Amino acid sequence: MSQRIIVIGAGSAGSIVSRRLVDAGHQVTVLEAGGPVTNPAIQDISRAGELWHSEQDWDYYTVPQANAAGRRLHLPRGKVLGGSHALNAMIYVRCAAQDFDGWAAAGNPGWSWQEVLPTYLKIENFDGGPSEVRSTGGPLDVLGDYPLQPIQQSIIDAAVQTGLAHNPDYNSGQLDGISQVQLTVRDGERLSSYRAYLEPVAGAENLEILTNAQAVRLLIDDGVVLGVEYVIDGEEVQQLYADQVFLCAGALDSPALLLRSGIGPAEELSELGIEVVHDLPGVGKNLHDHFLVPVIFGTSKRRVEPPKAGQTPAQTHLFWRSQPDLEVPDTQPINFSVPMYQDELSGPETGFSLMAGLIGTQSRGSLRLSGPSIDDEVLIDLAALADPADLRALLASVRQCREIGRAAALAEEWGAAEIHPGPEVADQDLEDYVRANVVTYHHQVGSCKMGIDQLAVVDPQLRVHGIAGLRIADASIMPQVTSGNTNAPVMLIAEKAVEFFLTEH
Protein backbone atom coordinates (compact mmCIF):
# COMPACT_ATOMS: atom_id res chain seq x y z
CA MET A 1 0.00 0.00 0.00
CA SER A 2 1.32 3.43 -0.94
CA GLN A 3 2.42 5.61 1.97
CA ARG A 4 3.07 9.31 2.34
CA ILE A 5 6.74 9.75 3.27
CA ILE A 6 8.86 12.74 4.21
CA VAL A 7 12.59 12.60 3.52
CA ILE A 8 14.63 15.21 5.38
CA GLY A 9 17.73 16.10 3.36
CA ALA A 10 18.56 15.71 -0.33
CA GLY A 11 22.21 14.81 0.11
CA SER A 12 24.05 11.57 -0.59
CA ALA A 13 21.58 9.49 1.41
CA GLY A 14 18.34 11.44 1.04
CA SER A 15 18.52 11.54 -2.74
CA ILE A 16 18.86 7.78 -2.92
CA VAL A 17 16.16 7.08 -0.34
CA SER A 18 13.77 9.41 -2.19
CA ARG A 19 14.42 7.88 -5.60
CA ARG A 20 13.93 4.32 -4.41
CA LEU A 21 10.72 5.21 -2.57
CA VAL A 22 9.38 7.05 -5.62
CA ASP A 23 10.16 4.03 -7.79
CA ALA A 24 8.29 1.85 -5.30
CA GLY A 25 5.16 3.99 -5.75
CA HIS A 26 5.14 5.94 -2.48
CA GLN A 27 4.22 9.63 -2.24
CA VAL A 28 7.47 11.38 -1.31
CA THR A 29 8.14 14.94 -0.13
CA VAL A 30 11.79 15.95 0.20
CA LEU A 31 12.76 18.79 2.52
CA GLU A 32 16.14 20.30 1.62
CA ALA A 33 17.45 23.21 3.70
CA GLY A 34 19.66 24.40 0.83
CA GLY A 35 18.78 25.62 -2.63
CA PRO A 36 19.14 24.28 -6.16
CA VAL A 37 22.50 23.72 -7.84
CA THR A 38 23.35 27.14 -9.33
CA ASN A 39 27.01 27.63 -8.38
CA PRO A 40 29.15 26.58 -11.40
CA ALA A 41 31.96 25.54 -9.05
CA ILE A 42 29.86 22.57 -7.96
CA GLN A 43 29.99 20.89 -11.37
CA ASP A 44 33.59 21.87 -12.22
CA ILE A 45 35.58 19.26 -10.31
CA SER A 46 38.70 21.45 -10.27
CA ARG A 47 36.95 24.14 -8.17
CA ALA A 48 35.80 22.25 -5.07
CA GLY A 49 37.92 24.45 -2.83
CA GLU A 50 35.80 27.47 -3.76
CA LEU A 51 32.75 25.87 -2.16
CA TRP A 52 34.02 26.10 1.40
CA HIS A 53 32.51 29.08 3.24
CA SER A 54 30.15 29.60 0.29
CA GLU A 55 26.36 29.87 0.35
CA GLN A 56 26.29 26.10 -0.21
CA ASP A 57 28.31 25.36 2.97
CA TRP A 58 26.72 25.10 6.42
CA ASP A 59 30.16 26.35 7.55
CA TYR A 60 30.17 24.53 10.87
CA TYR A 61 33.05 24.72 13.35
CA THR A 62 33.93 22.54 16.27
CA VAL A 63 34.33 23.83 19.78
CA PRO A 64 38.02 24.43 20.64
CA GLN A 65 39.89 21.15 20.39
CA ALA A 66 42.11 20.70 23.44
CA ASN A 67 44.42 18.22 21.70
CA ALA A 68 44.63 20.22 18.45
CA ALA A 69 46.30 23.36 19.85
CA GLY A 70 42.94 24.69 21.07
CA ARG A 71 41.76 25.41 17.52
CA ARG A 72 38.20 25.33 16.20
CA LEU A 73 38.20 23.04 13.15
CA HIS A 74 36.14 23.98 10.09
CA LEU A 75 33.55 21.39 9.11
CA PRO A 76 32.24 22.16 5.60
CA ARG A 77 28.87 20.47 5.04
CA GLY A 78 26.69 20.75 1.95
CA LYS A 79 23.62 23.00 2.08
CA VAL A 80 22.32 22.42 -1.45
CA LEU A 81 20.63 19.71 -3.50
CA GLY A 82 23.24 16.96 -3.38
CA GLY A 83 24.35 17.84 0.14
CA SER A 84 27.98 17.22 0.96
CA HIS A 85 28.29 15.16 -2.24
CA ALA A 86 28.03 18.54 -3.99
CA LEU A 87 31.07 19.83 -2.05
CA ASN A 88 33.36 16.85 -1.52
CA ALA A 89 36.29 15.41 -3.48
CA MET A 90 34.01 12.82 -5.16
CA ILE A 91 36.17 9.91 -3.93
CA TYR A 92 34.46 6.52 -4.06
CA VAL A 93 35.75 4.03 -1.48
CA ARG A 94 33.70 1.00 -0.47
CA CYS A 95 36.02 0.52 2.52
CA ALA A 96 37.14 -2.76 4.10
CA ALA A 97 35.02 -5.89 4.30
CA GLN A 98 36.07 -6.13 7.96
CA ASP A 99 34.32 -2.81 8.68
CA PHE A 100 30.93 -4.27 7.84
CA ASP A 101 31.65 -7.66 9.39
CA GLY A 102 32.49 -5.73 12.56
CA TRP A 103 29.13 -3.94 12.47
CA ALA A 104 27.35 -7.29 12.05
CA ALA A 105 29.35 -8.94 14.84
CA ALA A 106 28.31 -6.13 17.20
CA GLY A 107 24.68 -7.22 16.90
CA ASN A 108 23.59 -5.74 13.57
CA PRO A 109 22.36 -8.56 11.31
CA GLY A 110 22.13 -7.70 7.63
CA TRP A 111 25.33 -5.64 7.59
CA SER A 112 28.08 -8.20 6.97
CA TRP A 113 30.24 -7.76 3.88
CA GLN A 114 28.52 -10.59 2.03
CA GLU A 115 25.16 -8.98 2.78
CA VAL A 116 26.13 -5.45 1.70
CA LEU A 117 28.14 -6.37 -1.41
CA PRO A 118 25.01 -6.98 -3.57
CA THR A 119 23.79 -3.50 -2.58
CA TYR A 120 27.10 -1.93 -3.58
CA LEU A 121 26.82 -3.70 -6.93
CA LYS A 122 23.36 -2.18 -7.37
CA ILE A 123 24.75 1.34 -6.88
CA GLU A 124 27.71 1.57 -9.21
CA ASN A 125 28.43 1.85 -12.91
CA PHE A 126 32.18 1.16 -12.90
CA ASP A 127 34.16 2.09 -15.99
CA GLY A 128 36.54 -0.83 -15.36
CA GLY A 129 33.84 -3.31 -16.31
CA PRO A 130 31.89 -5.93 -14.37
CA SER A 131 33.39 -8.73 -12.27
CA GLU A 132 32.40 -10.77 -9.23
CA VAL A 133 33.02 -7.72 -7.06
CA ARG A 134 32.43 -4.77 -9.43
CA SER A 135 29.35 -3.77 -11.38
CA THR A 136 28.11 -1.74 -14.33
CA GLY A 137 24.61 -0.48 -14.95
CA GLY A 138 23.95 1.22 -11.62
CA PRO A 139 22.87 4.87 -11.37
CA LEU A 140 26.25 6.11 -10.08
CA ASP A 141 29.17 6.38 -12.51
CA VAL A 142 32.47 5.42 -10.88
CA LEU A 143 35.43 6.59 -12.95
CA GLY A 144 38.81 4.98 -12.43
CA ASP A 145 40.42 5.37 -15.86
CA TYR A 146 41.34 8.99 -16.54
CA PRO A 147 44.62 10.78 -17.34
CA LEU A 148 46.78 11.49 -14.32
CA GLN A 149 48.53 14.81 -13.91
CA PRO A 150 52.31 14.26 -14.22
CA ILE A 151 52.93 15.04 -10.55
CA GLN A 152 50.33 12.45 -9.52
CA GLN A 153 52.00 9.72 -11.57
CA SER A 154 55.30 10.65 -9.96
CA ILE A 155 53.70 10.38 -6.51
CA ILE A 156 52.67 6.83 -7.36
CA ASP A 157 56.19 6.08 -8.58
CA ALA A 158 57.73 7.58 -5.45
CA ALA A 159 55.45 5.59 -3.15
CA VAL A 160 56.42 2.38 -4.95
CA GLN A 161 60.09 3.35 -4.56
CA THR A 162 59.57 3.44 -0.78
CA GLY A 163 58.24 -0.12 -0.83
CA LEU A 164 54.50 0.35 -1.19
CA ALA A 165 52.55 -1.80 -3.63
CA HIS A 166 50.69 -0.25 -6.55
CA ASN A 167 47.03 -1.26 -6.18
CA PRO A 168 45.11 -0.87 -9.46
CA ASP A 169 41.66 -1.24 -7.82
CA TYR A 170 41.36 -0.65 -4.09
CA ASN A 171 37.61 -1.38 -4.34
CA SER A 172 38.12 -4.99 -5.39
CA GLY A 173 38.71 -6.37 -1.91
CA GLN A 174 42.16 -5.16 -0.79
CA LEU A 175 42.73 -1.56 0.24
CA ASP A 176 46.48 -1.61 0.88
CA GLY A 177 48.86 0.24 -1.45
CA ILE A 178 49.00 3.39 -3.58
CA SER A 179 46.14 3.87 -6.03
CA GLN A 180 44.54 6.21 -8.50
CA VAL A 181 41.41 7.63 -6.89
CA GLN A 182 38.05 6.44 -8.24
CA LEU A 183 35.66 9.34 -8.73
CA THR A 184 31.92 9.88 -9.04
CA VAL A 185 32.18 11.89 -12.25
CA ARG A 186 30.17 11.90 -15.49
CA ASP A 187 31.30 13.68 -18.67
CA GLY A 188 33.97 15.58 -16.73
CA GLU A 189 31.48 16.95 -14.20
CA ARG A 190 30.64 16.11 -10.60
CA LEU A 191 28.02 13.38 -10.31
CA SER A 192 26.36 13.71 -6.92
CA SER A 193 23.78 11.17 -5.83
CA TYR A 194 21.20 13.92 -6.39
CA ARG A 195 22.17 14.13 -10.07
CA ALA A 196 22.48 10.36 -10.42
CA TYR A 197 19.33 9.32 -8.56
CA LEU A 198 16.83 12.07 -7.84
CA GLU A 199 17.15 14.63 -10.63
CA PRO A 200 16.14 12.12 -13.34
CA VAL A 201 12.72 11.66 -11.64
CA ALA A 202 12.25 15.25 -10.46
CA GLY A 203 9.06 15.53 -12.54
CA ALA A 204 7.41 12.40 -11.11
CA GLU A 205 3.81 12.87 -9.97
CA ASN A 206 4.51 11.20 -6.62
CA LEU A 207 7.55 13.39 -5.80
CA GLU A 208 7.70 16.89 -4.34
CA ILE A 209 11.07 18.57 -3.67
CA LEU A 210 11.01 21.62 -1.39
CA THR A 211 14.23 23.64 -1.30
CA ASN A 212 15.22 26.26 1.31
CA ALA A 213 13.04 24.20 3.65
CA GLN A 214 14.78 23.55 6.97
CA ALA A 215 13.33 21.02 9.37
CA VAL A 216 12.83 22.56 12.82
CA ARG A 217 11.46 19.60 14.77
CA LEU A 218 9.61 16.33 14.38
CA LEU A 219 5.91 16.22 15.23
CA ILE A 220 5.44 13.34 17.66
CA ASP A 221 2.41 12.02 19.52
CA ASP A 222 2.54 9.14 21.98
CA GLY A 223 5.80 7.77 20.57
CA VAL A 224 4.75 8.02 16.92
CA VAL A 225 6.18 10.49 14.39
CA LEU A 226 3.34 12.25 12.60
CA GLY A 227 5.32 14.70 10.48
CA VAL A 228 7.73 17.61 10.49
CA GLU A 229 7.64 21.29 11.35
CA TYR A 230 9.83 23.22 8.96
CA VAL A 231 10.63 26.78 7.94
CA ILE A 232 10.68 28.06 4.36
CA ASP A 233 13.28 30.68 3.41
CA GLY A 234 14.06 31.21 7.08
CA GLU A 235 10.69 32.82 7.76
CA GLU A 236 7.43 30.96 7.21
CA VAL A 237 6.83 28.04 9.61
CA GLN A 238 4.79 25.17 8.21
CA GLN A 239 3.84 21.66 9.21
CA LEU A 240 3.75 18.59 7.00
CA TYR A 241 2.23 15.26 7.97
CA ALA A 242 3.13 11.79 6.74
CA ASP A 243 3.01 8.07 7.51
CA GLN A 244 6.79 7.74 7.71
CA VAL A 245 9.80 10.04 8.06
CA PHE A 246 13.32 9.26 6.84
CA LEU A 247 15.93 11.47 8.49
CA CYS A 248 18.90 11.90 6.14
CA ALA A 249 20.40 15.17 7.36
CA GLY A 250 23.88 13.87 8.17
CA ALA A 251 26.00 13.19 11.24
CA LEU A 252 25.64 16.77 12.51
CA ASP A 253 22.10 17.81 11.60
CA SER A 254 20.30 14.51 12.22
CA PRO A 255 21.16 14.36 15.94
CA ALA A 256 20.54 18.12 16.24
CA LEU A 257 17.01 17.67 14.86
CA LEU A 258 16.33 14.77 17.22
CA LEU A 259 17.50 16.85 20.17
CA ARG A 260 15.34 19.84 19.18
CA SER A 261 12.42 17.40 18.93
CA GLY A 262 12.93 16.19 22.50
CA ILE A 263 14.61 12.91 21.59
CA GLY A 264 17.94 12.46 23.37
CA PRO A 265 19.60 12.48 26.79
CA ALA A 266 16.84 13.65 29.14
CA GLU A 267 19.10 15.62 31.47
CA GLU A 268 20.69 17.60 28.63
CA LEU A 269 17.31 18.40 27.10
CA SER A 270 15.81 19.51 30.41
CA GLU A 271 18.71 21.88 31.03
CA LEU A 272 17.85 23.62 27.74
CA GLY A 273 14.14 23.81 28.50
CA ILE A 274 13.26 21.25 25.80
CA GLU A 275 10.38 18.94 26.68
CA VAL A 276 11.63 15.37 26.83
CA VAL A 277 9.64 13.27 24.37
CA HIS A 278 11.88 10.21 24.59
CA ASP A 279 14.98 9.70 26.74
CA LEU A 280 17.54 8.29 24.29
CA PRO A 281 21.01 8.70 25.84
CA GLY A 282 23.05 8.00 22.70
CA VAL A 283 21.82 10.89 20.56
CA GLY A 284 24.83 13.07 19.80
CA LYS A 285 27.31 10.66 21.42
CA ASN A 286 29.95 8.51 19.69
CA LEU A 287 30.77 11.34 17.27
CA HIS A 288 34.06 10.79 15.47
CA ASP A 289 35.86 11.64 12.24
CA HIS A 290 38.90 11.03 10.06
CA PHE A 291 41.78 13.53 10.20
CA LEU A 292 44.44 14.96 7.89
CA VAL A 293 47.77 16.77 8.33
CA PRO A 294 49.44 18.53 5.36
CA VAL A 295 52.95 17.67 4.25
CA ILE A 296 53.63 20.29 1.57
CA PHE A 297 56.36 20.39 -1.06
CA GLY A 298 57.67 22.94 -3.54
CA THR A 299 59.54 21.96 -6.70
CA SER A 300 62.63 23.49 -8.33
CA LYS A 301 63.12 21.40 -11.51
CA ARG A 302 59.57 21.17 -12.88
CA ARG A 303 56.54 23.31 -12.22
CA VAL A 304 53.43 21.61 -10.90
CA GLU A 305 50.63 22.85 -13.12
CA PRO A 306 47.39 23.60 -11.23
CA PRO A 307 44.42 21.43 -12.22
CA LYS A 308 42.52 22.51 -15.32
CA ALA A 309 38.73 22.48 -15.62
CA GLY A 310 37.55 18.89 -15.36
CA GLN A 311 40.60 17.79 -13.34
CA THR A 312 40.36 17.09 -9.64
CA PRO A 313 43.37 18.24 -7.58
CA ALA A 314 43.31 14.94 -5.63
CA GLN A 315 43.95 12.02 -8.00
CA THR A 316 45.85 9.51 -5.86
CA HIS A 317 45.76 8.16 -2.33
CA LEU A 318 47.18 5.26 -0.38
CA PHE A 319 46.09 2.91 2.38
CA TRP A 320 48.68 1.78 4.92
CA ARG A 321 48.86 0.13 8.34
CA SER A 322 50.83 2.14 10.87
CA GLN A 323 51.37 -1.14 12.73
CA PRO A 324 51.82 -4.36 10.74
CA ASP A 325 49.52 -6.43 12.97
CA LEU A 326 46.45 -4.30 12.29
CA GLU A 327 43.52 -6.06 10.62
CA VAL A 328 42.85 -3.16 8.21
CA PRO A 329 44.74 0.01 7.21
CA ASP A 330 44.44 2.82 9.74
CA THR A 331 45.96 5.57 7.57
CA GLN A 332 44.94 6.99 4.19
CA PRO A 333 47.06 9.87 2.88
CA ILE A 334 45.46 11.75 -0.01
CA ASN A 335 47.63 13.61 -2.51
CA PHE A 336 46.88 17.03 -4.00
CA SER A 337 48.44 18.73 -7.03
CA VAL A 338 48.35 22.03 -5.14
CA PRO A 339 49.90 23.26 -1.88
CA MET A 340 47.21 22.88 0.79
CA TYR A 341 48.08 25.86 2.99
CA GLN A 342 45.87 26.60 5.98
CA ASP A 343 45.86 28.82 9.03
CA GLU A 344 49.41 30.16 9.45
CA LEU A 345 51.02 28.10 6.67
CA SER A 346 52.27 29.78 3.49
CA GLY A 347 54.74 29.30 0.64
CA PRO A 348 55.03 29.17 -3.17
CA GLU A 349 51.87 29.34 -5.28
CA THR A 350 52.51 25.97 -6.88
CA GLY A 351 53.59 22.66 -5.42
CA PHE A 352 51.97 19.49 -4.14
CA SER A 353 50.67 18.14 -0.85
CA LEU A 354 50.80 14.65 0.61
CA MET A 355 48.04 14.88 3.21
CA ALA A 356 48.79 12.38 5.96
CA GLY A 357 45.52 10.73 6.94
CA LEU A 358 44.10 8.94 9.98
CA ILE A 359 41.14 6.62 9.30
CA GLY A 360 41.30 4.20 12.24
CA THR A 361 40.04 6.81 14.69
CA GLN A 362 39.70 5.78 18.34
CA SER A 363 38.79 9.17 19.85
CA ARG A 364 35.10 9.80 20.57
CA GLY A 365 33.41 13.17 20.88
CA SER A 366 29.86 14.45 21.11
CA LEU A 367 27.34 16.92 19.76
CA ARG A 368 25.05 19.03 21.95
CA LEU A 369 22.68 21.94 21.50
CA SER A 370 23.36 25.33 23.06
CA GLY A 371 19.64 26.20 22.93
CA PRO A 372 16.30 24.96 21.56
CA SER A 373 16.19 27.09 18.38
CA ILE A 374 17.59 26.36 14.93
CA ASP A 375 19.47 29.64 15.33
CA ASP A 376 21.31 28.43 18.43
CA GLU A 377 24.83 27.15 17.80
CA VAL A 378 25.34 23.39 17.71
CA LEU A 379 28.27 22.48 19.99
CA ILE A 380 30.37 20.00 18.02
CA ASP A 381 33.27 18.31 19.80
CA LEU A 382 35.21 15.79 17.70
CA ALA A 383 37.67 15.17 20.55
CA ALA A 384 40.37 15.30 17.88
CA LEU A 385 43.49 13.32 18.89
CA ALA A 386 42.15 12.76 22.40
CA ASP A 387 43.17 9.10 22.22
CA PRO A 388 47.00 8.72 22.15
CA ALA A 389 46.65 5.94 19.57
CA ASP A 390 45.28 8.45 17.06
CA LEU A 391 48.27 10.74 17.51
CA ARG A 392 50.69 7.83 17.09
CA ALA A 393 49.06 6.70 13.85
CA LEU A 394 48.89 10.21 12.40
CA LEU A 395 52.54 10.86 13.27
CA ALA A 396 53.46 7.63 11.48
CA SER A 397 51.49 8.78 8.44
CA VAL A 398 53.25 12.17 8.41
CA ARG A 399 56.64 10.42 8.54
CA GLN A 400 55.60 8.19 5.64
CA CYS A 401 54.55 11.20 3.54
CA ARG A 402 57.89 12.88 4.22
CA GLU A 403 59.67 9.70 3.08
CA ILE A 404 57.66 9.54 -0.15
CA GLY A 405 58.52 13.19 -0.86
CA ARG A 406 62.23 12.35 -0.55
CA ALA A 407 62.03 9.45 -3.04
CA ALA A 408 63.82 9.85 -6.37
CA ALA A 409 60.67 10.13 -8.50
CA LEU A 410 59.89 13.39 -6.71
CA ALA A 411 63.15 14.69 -5.23
CA GLU A 412 65.28 14.09 -8.34
CA GLU A 413 62.78 14.42 -11.18
CA TRP A 414 60.88 17.41 -9.77
CA GLY A 415 63.36 18.88 -7.34
CA ALA A 416 60.80 18.36 -4.57
CA ALA A 417 61.70 20.04 -1.29
CA GLU A 418 59.63 19.94 1.88
CA ILE A 419 58.14 23.29 2.88
CA HIS A 420 55.92 22.15 5.77
CA PRO A 421 56.69 20.82 8.34
CA GLY A 422 60.08 21.70 6.81
CA PRO A 423 63.45 19.93 6.98
CA GLU A 424 64.34 21.76 10.18
CA VAL A 425 61.62 19.83 12.05
CA ALA A 426 63.05 16.51 13.16
CA ASP A 427 60.87 13.40 13.25
CA GLN A 428 60.90 13.34 17.03
CA ASP A 429 59.63 16.93 17.10
CA LEU A 430 56.58 16.49 14.85
CA GLU A 431 53.93 16.33 17.55
CA ASP A 432 53.51 20.09 17.90
CA TYR A 433 53.20 20.47 14.12
CA VAL A 434 50.55 17.75 13.94
CA ARG A 435 48.48 19.27 16.76
CA ALA A 436 48.73 22.76 15.25
CA ASN A 437 47.76 21.67 11.73
CA VAL A 438 45.43 18.67 11.98
CA VAL A 439 42.15 19.18 10.10
CA THR A 440 39.08 17.10 9.48
CA TYR A 441 38.86 14.67 6.56
CA HIS A 442 35.15 15.68 6.42
CA HIS A 443 33.93 12.24 7.50
CA GLN A 444 31.93 12.85 10.67
CA VAL A 445 29.97 9.76 11.74
CA GLY A 446 28.44 7.90 14.63
CA SER A 447 26.22 10.43 16.40
CA CYS A 448 23.04 8.30 16.05
CA LYS A 449 24.73 4.94 16.06
CA MET A 450 23.16 1.66 15.03
CA GLY A 451 23.06 -1.17 17.52
CA ILE A 452 21.43 -2.81 20.48
CA ASP A 453 23.50 -1.39 23.35
CA GLN A 454 22.60 1.45 25.72
CA LEU A 455 23.96 4.20 23.46
CA ALA A 456 22.37 2.87 20.27
CA VAL A 457 19.93 5.28 18.62
CA VAL A 458 18.69 3.10 15.76
CA ASP A 459 18.21 -0.65 15.48
CA PRO A 460 19.83 -2.78 12.76
CA GLN A 461 16.97 -1.88 10.36
CA LEU A 462 17.68 1.84 11.08
CA ARG A 463 14.44 2.41 13.02
CA VAL A 464 14.86 4.87 15.89
CA HIS A 465 14.59 3.03 19.21
CA GLY A 466 11.32 3.87 20.95
CA ILE A 467 9.88 6.07 18.19
CA ALA A 468 7.56 4.59 15.55
CA GLY A 469 7.53 5.78 11.95
CA LEU A 470 11.08 7.19 11.98
CA ARG A 471 14.22 5.87 10.31
CA ILE A 472 17.67 7.45 10.05
CA ALA A 473 19.78 6.84 6.96
CA ASP A 474 23.07 8.72 6.87
CA ALA A 475 26.61 8.67 8.32
CA SER A 476 25.29 9.22 11.84
CA ILE A 477 24.26 5.56 12.14
CA MET A 478 27.79 4.16 11.74
CA PRO A 479 28.84 2.48 15.00
CA GLN A 480 32.49 2.74 13.92
CA VAL A 481 33.81 4.85 11.06
CA THR A 482 34.74 2.92 7.94
CA SER A 483 38.29 2.48 6.66
CA GLY A 484 38.19 5.18 4.00
CA ASN A 485 36.07 7.99 2.59
CA THR A 486 32.53 7.71 3.89
CA ASN A 487 30.52 8.81 0.84
CA ALA A 488 30.14 5.35 -0.71
CA PRO A 489 29.16 3.74 2.64
CA VAL A 490 26.57 6.49 3.16
CA MET A 491 25.03 5.67 -0.22
CA LEU A 492 25.06 2.02 0.80
CA ILE A 493 23.28 2.91 4.06
CA ALA A 494 20.60 4.75 2.08
CA GLU A 495 19.98 1.79 -0.20
CA LYS A 496 19.85 -0.60 2.76
CA ALA A 497 17.39 1.65 4.61
CA VAL A 498 14.92 1.43 1.73
CA GLU A 499 15.50 -2.32 1.39
CA PHE A 500 14.57 -2.76 5.05
CA PHE A 501 11.54 -0.51 4.71
CA LEU A 502 10.17 -2.18 1.59
CA THR A 503 10.63 -5.62 3.14
CA GLU A 504 8.73 -4.47 6.22
CA HIS A 505 5.94 -2.81 4.23
From TrEMBL:
GO terms assigned for molecular function: flavin adenine dinucleotide binding; oxidoreductase activity, acting on CH-OH group of donors
Keyword Flavoprotein: yes
Binding site for FAD: 80
One Pfam family here: GMC_oxred_C
Domain Glucose-methanol-choline oxidoreductase N-terminal: 250-264
Domain of life: Bacteria
Keywords: FAD, Flavoprotein
InterPro entries: FAD/NAD-bd_sf (IPR036188), GMC_OxRdtase (IPR012132), GMC_OxRdtase_N (IPR000172), GMC_OxRtase_C (IPR007867)
Keyword Electron transport attached: no
Cofactor(s) listed in the protein's UniProt record: FAD
Binding site for substrate: 441
Homology family: Belongs to the GMC oxidoreductase family.
Stated name of the protein: Oxidoreductase
Lineage of origin: Bacteria, Bacillati, Actinomycetota, Actinomycetes, Micrococcales
